[in-house]
Amino acid sequence: MMQDFQKQADAGVIKVARKEAKPLTTDSKTVQKQKTNLESLVMRKVTYKVQDKDYELNAKDLITSASYKGGQLTFDTSKLANQIKDINAKQATLGKSFNFKTTGGSEITVQDGSYGWKISEAKAKKTLLAALQANKASVNAKADIYGTGFYDTGTGYDVTAANGIGDTYAEVSISQQMAWFYKNGTLITSLPVVTGNVSDGSSTPIGVHYIGYKQSPTVLRGVHSDGSSYASPVRYWAPFTVDGCGFHDASWRHNWSGSAYLNDGSNGCVNIRPSSMATVFGALEQGEPVIVHN
Questions:
Q1: Who contacts 62 (Cβ-Cβ below 8 Å, separation ≥6)?
Q2: Where residue 237 sits, what CATH number does that domain have?
Q3: pTM of the entire structure?
Q4: How many other C-beta atoms can be found within 10 angstroms of the C-beta atom of residue 51?
Q5: Catalytic residues (predicted)?
């Protein structure tokens, strides 16, 4: 065959034989095989493990129809998408308000911030369909979650205590100008701080954030509210927002009064005395929640 092709190519003319593809019929072997596969598939079920809860999902309840084209099966998974929405409503934390008990004992609700996780409907569909087709008994949702901020893979999925915040976290009170640092439920340290300058609109953002990373030493660079730039060397740096708010020592600060934040606060960060920052830095963990409230 290749010799004939080469002769035609050398002659400058290539003859292509016409061959019509026969359409599949309902009684063809291919269709019957796929029908058998589908009949087996709709009888299957898979357990979707989401944190400490198990969801038993039946294929017949999630796949409403299927089509076969180009050698591929395509499923209508609209009901599956609704199931993921329901699970997110019950358990996901990203974009939701957090109920939080402050160190002082008050029960408050904190909104905003980047801490949390949510199941991606697109990822979950692929995971669950693949599991059903492979007849797996269970799959974990952890590979299907996403988040915002420093990590697009989400934060806090393995935490179920205290409404998803857990017992390792940092708490900052704007009105009290205090911060508390907990690890495994134990208070490591508490100390006065100076937060963002209220008068020029640089207040430290309220919300449930998380530690993106830790760096020591480094130089913090940015722009003041008046437009001038700054470069401030610090020994310890632990940011909790992607736009540059975090915990750091402030050797240049002289005003540490409880009202300094009103007119002489930071550019949004939580300033800590140099003598205390090493302890704070050691207590903080990458990914741990930071609750900033009034």
A1: 77, 79, 80, 83, 128
A2: 2.40.440.10
A3: 0.85
A4: 17
A5: 248, 269
**Counted domains in the chain:** 2
- The three-class DSSP label of residue 149 is coil
- Which residues does residue 99 pair with via DSSP β-bridges, in sequence order? 109
| Dist CA 225 CA 191 (whole Å) | 27
Q: Other CB atoms closer than 10 Å to residue 85's CB: what's the count? A: 13
Reply yes or no: is the peptide bond before residue 217 cis, omega within 30 of 0: yes
Tokens 């393995």 appear where? 158
pLDDT in tens, 92-131: 999 999 999 999 999 999 999 999 999 999 999 999 999 9
199: which 2 tokens?
A: 């008068």
- Tell me the β-bridge partners of 9: none
3-state secondary structure of 281: helix
Mind telling me the catalytic residues?
248, 269
Q: Give the residue from 148, 163, 92 showing the smallest Cα distance to 115.
A: 148
Q: Kindly report the backbone phi and psi dihedral angles of residue 119, in degrees, each rounded to the nearest multiple of 5, phi listed first.
A: -80, 130
- Quick one: which H or E segment has residue 7? helix 2-11
